[in-house]
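Q: I have two molecules that I believe assemble together. Could you output structure tokens for the complex as a whole instead of separate predictions?
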Amino acid sequence: MLNFIVRRLIYLVPVLLAVSLLTFLIASLLPGDLAYVILGDQATPEKVAALRHDMGLDQPMWWRYLSWVGQVLQGDLGRSFRTGQTVLQAVAERIPVSIELMLLAEIIGLVIGVPLAIACAARAGSAFDRFMTGGAFAMLSVPSFLSAILLIYLFAVELRWLPATGYVPLTEDPIANLRFFVLPALTLALAEWPGIMRVLRSDMIATLQEDYISLAKAKGLKPSRILFVHALKPSSLTLVTITGINIGRLIGGALIVESIFALPGIGRLLVGAIYTRDLIILQGVVLLVASGFVIMNFIVDMLYAVLDPRIRHGHA
Amino acid sequence: MATLELSLPEEVEQPVRRKRGLGLLFWFAISWIVIIFAVAILAPVLPLQNPVDMDMLERRAWISTEHWLGTDGLGRDELARLIWGARVSLTVGLCAPLIGLIVGGALGLLAGYFRGRFETLVVGSMDVLLAFPPLIFALAVVAYLGQSIPNLTFILGFLGIPAFMRVSRAATLTLARREFVIAAEALGATHARILLRELLPNVFLPLFAFFLLGVAVTIVAEGSLSFLGLGVPPPMASWGSMIGEGRESLEMAPRLAFLPAFAMFVTVLAFNLVGDTLRALTDPRQGAL
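A: Yes, here they are, computed for all two components at once.
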């Protein structure tokens, strides 16, 4: 097991280096001089030259990359020239919002997807199964910004049950906080449950055909016990993988949903940085998010290996 | 001729697993795709109003003989914008996956056939690309490169390369060990001939099915970027930007958001359906699903 972890960790190093290089290239190769962005179009060439020198922009590209990576490794991701906030401060301030959103979305997605998958697998091929499988397929074609609009129209405009946009910190007023989170989390969950349901359903249908399920039936165990204990347990592996993959997808989806519902999370920070051309924040946040994504995938791989010994011995 | 006998049973087995008909839904999806393409291509010659002409006195006008689907928040003809929006969504939606299909397909074919260091390099660099949350990558690049249809197509196409590479490599890996390839090698065929004449025709079908699914994903991605105001530049219409603009008038005229939303949903669903049906046909392993 240790051997496996070390091998995967070594693989992580070149991937993270490449991620940092790509992030740096996006931010530096593309047009738009950072000094002009900071000083505005009216700046004199002397002022621009002085600032470029101060920021090291007149140095060669490879040198700037190395010094940036050096700073990042020391925990200095730079600070916004607009707000004066450091990247780490800005991210630390907003990350609880994004995490709360993702957790709620994943929970709602599982709450909808898992029971439906079990119900469909128990009666595979029935009218209910075919209807739900078709429904899940159709839901996969609904982009999150589309379901967001529908939910806002239904619950905020027509019924006026929930607020369309806004945010209250969890520590200030938990109930109000949750009310603001219902629609965005539901939006994301609507995109999550079809995937969860489809994979878990086919997984369980395969499991239900195993011999030990027949044995359990022959022993006269209750159908619900067979379904929930004997059949669901082997599928936990699949659930871990989907949840992991989903979290990766949620990072992208959260970007749009946070913008629509005006939730002050990482996604909105990023979109804001793009609109205001705040390059330092953009570069830092993209690096953090992409690294987080890589590490998340690493953790999923690890969990997968813990649950399935065949993988760590390389038989998969 | 032992090789021929070995490959024969598999050739015969496949049609048995196929469903008898493609189903009514499949043909509905095909018709919708054909209609939407015809309308989008014919947009310049159709008797439509100018999609960017504003009429501030006729803002959010209800359906009339002049404006068949009414007007939007700036008094522009909704039907004309829907159809011109389809042009944008379909152009980006087709061209971007085409980039992925060609580049990713070729890389996967080469990696799966030649293996070795080249394969390690290709798979490794694709892993790095996959490490980026795609939407964030696209947003950042579009923000710098500038908003235009070619830029949007290029970046979305670029992001599709890893997925196409994986599909093409996986298909090639299994095919390269098949008897007809070994037979061609034994007969002294060149690498180029094996790649182009033996492998490519067999890899193409699964790749094409994946291409159709890619079209659906790209239409959604373009819609998301345009919805955020970072896709096509205004006043050009795209379904995504129309939904974004329609959001402002959800209380007064919800149809301004729902019409393009409906068009996008049905189109994406149609491409998903056709792509999924073809995928099920070309991939016998998935037959049980």
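A: One point stands out. Confidence is low (pLDDT under 50) at residues 1-19 of chain B.
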